[in-house]
Specification:
The protein is mainly alpha-helical and about 950 residues long. The longest helix is centred in the N-terminal third of the chain and has 27 residues, at about 150-175. The model is unreliable at about 260-275 and about 495-500 (pLDDT under 50).
Length: about 950
Amino acid sequence: MPDISVRVLGALTVIRDGEPVALGGPLPRALLARLIMARGQMVPDATLIDELWRDRPPRSAQLTLQGYVASLRKALEPERGRSAPQILIRQGTGYALVVDREHVDSGRFETLATSGHDQLITGDADGARRTLTEALELWWGPAYADAANWDFASIEATRLERLRADVIEDQLAARSDCGEFTAVIAQLEAITTADPLRERAWELLALSHYRAGNQGDALATLRSARDRIATELGADPRRSLLDLQDAILRQDPTLMPDTDIAIHTGAPAPTANPERPTGNIPLALTSLVGREEQINQIAELMATRRMVTLTGPGGMGKTRAAMEVARDRKDADGPWVIELAGAHNAAATLDTVVSSLGLTINGGIPVLTSLLHDRSFVLVLDNCEHLLDEVATLATAILRSCPKIRILATSREAVGVAGETVFEMPPLADSAQLFLERAGAAAADANREDVEKLCAALDHMPLAIELAAGQSSALSVRQIIDMLDDRFEVLRGGPRTNARHATMQAAIDGSYQSLTESERRLFCDLAVFQGGFDLEAARLVTGHRGLLTDLSALIAKSMLTAVGGDPRRYLMLETLRSYAAVQQDPQRLGELRAAHTEWVVGMATEAYLGLRGPQCLAWTRKLDADMANVRAALDRVDPHSETYLEIVGNVYWFWFRRGFADEGMRMLAPALTAPPEVPIATRVRAVAGSAITSYLGADLPALFAALTRLGEMYAEFDVDAADPVVQIARGDAAVTLAFFEAGSGLVEPARQHAHDSLDIARRYNSPWTAAESLMSLGTADFRSGDHASAGEYFDSAVEVARSCGYDWCAASILWIHAKSDIAQEKWDGPAENKLARMVGYCERAYDLTSWMVALFTLSYVLFRRGEHRPAARLIGVVDGMTDLTGYSPEKMDVVELAGFGASMRREIDPTLLAEEGSQGRALSRDEVRELVVEWAGPTDVR
């Protein structure tokens, strides 16, 4: 890595291997400055864009940012070539500058400032003079001079300038201790003339006059200080100034410098002052439960950031977390908490802060920051959401003028101050323990599972859980769960001293009232979604004008949560959904439910082919995310209606692929009794799904019933129908019948149905059905004992499936082909290689059940090779997944796999089976893949 040093105590300059680096224009320089200020921490792209373009970024901001990064990398590491950057690096969602803090002059300055101050207060005046002089010599102009037009640079520059002023005073104190009275007096007179509110400078000036033998000048200096402070601040001078005056009048000998003993100056830098109140954080009345991780995270942020804001909906525990973090701090003059819930304008905000700090001032924020300038503490600004502009103004002034004060705010949305770090309070980790602790003896007979169910229904929200615990003396846990449909009636009874938290509804009322009318409409409309949604779903269902603007506002105000993903998904906590439902107009609710159902139908229709093509993984994940919405739509429509059957008939492949056999069978059961007025194409697809999920669930009676009904419907088709939809449905019915007929040994019917479906697939360009048809023809030949012909069909089927991205089908073909190899005792290569490729297709398609089938079949091949130890380990992998999902390959395939399993469990040594099985259960998916590659060959299917 090249030798890099950075100078910001003046115009921004980067020195690389002894030579200055060309950094480009103002924006690249501002970008570099912002990354330097982060001290090696990652700064997200969104933050960089907002701060560089002052909240008005161009549409091309992301690309422009990347361009600036590229140019800076080229300047910083011109000989890097194609190797990874080492200085300006990508981290997560943003960038970080990796430069040793001691190689940045501001970092070196702060280190020297701290060291010199420590030397001063321990009596090493000469050492302090040298160290602090070295620190001041690092300055060659105003800090971040060429980035001063950006707020973030202005705030940091102000902080450094304030620190520089403190260092100058420390250095002058050290020089005074070393006997340089005349020079020190001249410089301090200039400082007090330019900034008459710096009380420590007045004290040092008076002390130096006294040490120089001018007691009268010293007392006159202190009188001038008192008069200027009273006139301009309307306040009394600090206690140390009065103590110095008393010491001078008494001619206290400790005021004179002494080179033989450690001397503290008469005007020390701010430390804990016994005459000054040092905080007002109340003692905790209850124990803290389940927040240790968040408390540590917030404390770490407070160690490096000047302002941290805890956000989240009402009742999420922001205030308690802030109090705990502040209470653990060891600052000299604090911490202080300012409760802003009762303030409603700028004047009331300032009055609340001043009175809470125990001050008396006239003159507004400038006077307040002057009084607080040398103090060191954490200021907790609690409940800021209704005073964002007012708090932003106050916080900015404090951050700019008071370098030793850090701000910890709580708000339902970010305050919006430059340099602010937002920490979103997550749901409570150990919410069940909180309930049990708060309920006490009243919940002694509570079942832990019931408590956890209750807490999950309450979104693991601390306030809701504490309110529920308060009801446990009158209601059992199960009664509380049963009454959650009217949760706002149940969740009441909080502390009488806090009206905002007396009921759950009161906690949310404030947030709801802060929304604009348009935001309220959207908030209530979005409650129609279950389990989350994305932007396009919100657009289609709500039809809301100004959707993105209002959606962003709801996220900012903690009424919605953005939960990541591409596209982004959004989640409304169940407690907030219940609140929104109460506010919703009944007529509007009916319109929304109809639109929501229509959206689910459209999504399911797209998913049918999506789950069979190259986007199968994306569609599986999408349905994973939106299955709660699918269930909600199904719950509100007639299970024998066309709408219901259209949804279940299009998503059954998801239930099959994910191993959700029970849900799939239950949801698809009405298809067998669907009325004839439902279009036959819709009925066929749903009945075929019933057959396939019953097969997955090893429910043979249900499977036979579905296949019988499917055969009856197949006979109803008009073979000459002109409608492509009807013909494609006929092909679906034929190939489903062929698959099960071939598997059960009904060879001739299977071949007939497979040829019919193959003809339809080729006529209507349906490669998915063609691949399934070829697989069924191969299976029929395999069952008839014609392995050579079967192999040809299987090879053709895999090629068709691969070409259209139908990974499930490719995996299934390879499995049946491997079983053909096993029947011919072709191990030591053929069968294993096919099963390894099957694993690759399953992983690419996110197909859990087929993955389990592949591993179980491979375990049998290894067993037949005499390798019992790896066979037992793979059995453990599959058994572990069966415990998690309920899906068993042996129950699904009662012909081969059940027999394979019986042989292995009978002949493998029980101790070995248990030991290796235990190891297999503990393996990760990546570790399993490595073993498959080792034992069976590559899984790559690209």
